[in-house]
Amino acid sequence: MPQSKVDGRTSAAVQAWLAARTPAFRAGIEVVVIDPHAGYAAAVRAALPDALIAVDHFHLIMLANKAVTAVRQRVTRDLLDRRGRKTDPTWANRRLLLRGKERLSERALARMWNGCVDSDPTGQILSAWIAKEELRALCATAAHGGHPGEIRARLWAFYRWCADTQIPELTTLAETIDTWWPAIEVFLTTGLTNARTEGTNRLIKQVKRAACGFRNRDNYRRRVRLHCTRQTRRLSARNPTVPA
Q: Are 162 and 170 in contact (CB under 8 A)?
């Protein structure tokens, strides 16, 4: 389906875009995947009352990573009375804290874990990392077909961990998950996600940032197309459809 950009992050902007579509277009929409943004949800409910709203794992893991970073920064300020430096193990391993456990080698996991144990006597940073991994495990149930029993078990484990740690950032994260749970459950049972759209949007922003602004709009479009279709062009080059 053709894509178009809408300026603004307001409910009115989304409703105006949907109102400009044909009745057949709106009637064919069954599920809408959005950011956990109240304005978007209100617009979808108003314009598409029969459509389901889903919040996918892309945005949930992003919220969990932000919570881990917030805990790390707060603990560093409380313990050292300053911001983190490259000599601090928790700062040096900050990227490892945001990486999935299955993507960490045994050496990297040990370095991250031991660095947090040695530098954070409160244990809050590791607790935040474990909460993030519990949420990732919950989101992973979508790949297994969204079995209700598995979803309930993972959700309970996540809530219990956040409650037991009594860390303000994790409490806020758990409350956000609870607020958006109906939409999250739609994702877990359907597996629908807009991660590919978010990835394309990231590439476009990177092109714009690297160029520091394009004076020629046509050249801007060509550069964006060049970066966003790189994978497709590689496949086409391996399997040409016309004789060389």
A: yes
| Encoded tokens for 112 | 């991250």
Query: What pTM value is reported for the model?
Result: 0.82
Instruction: Decide if 129 contacts 97 (C-beta within 8 A).
Output: yes
State the distance between the two ends of the chain, measured CA to CA, in whole angstroms: 32
Q: Are 186 and 31 in contact (CB under 8 A)?
A: yes
Q: Which helix (H) or strand (E) holds 182?
A: helix 181-190
What are the DSSP calls for 14-42, one per residue?
HHHHHHTS-HHHHHT--EEE--S-HHHHH
Cα 91 from chain centroid? 22
pLDDT tens for each residue of 199-219: 888 888 888 887 776 778 888
Domain residue extents for the chain: 11-54, 57-190, 200-238
* Spatial contact of 190 and 146, defined as CB atoms under 8 Å apart: yes
The DSSP code sequence of 147-189 is: -HHHHHHHHHHHHHHHHHHT-HHHHHHHHHHHHTHHHHHHHHH
In this structure, what are the phi and psi dihedrals at residue 33, rounded to the nearest 5 degrees?
-95, 125
Per the CB < 8 A criterion, the answer to whether 139 and 75 are in contact is no
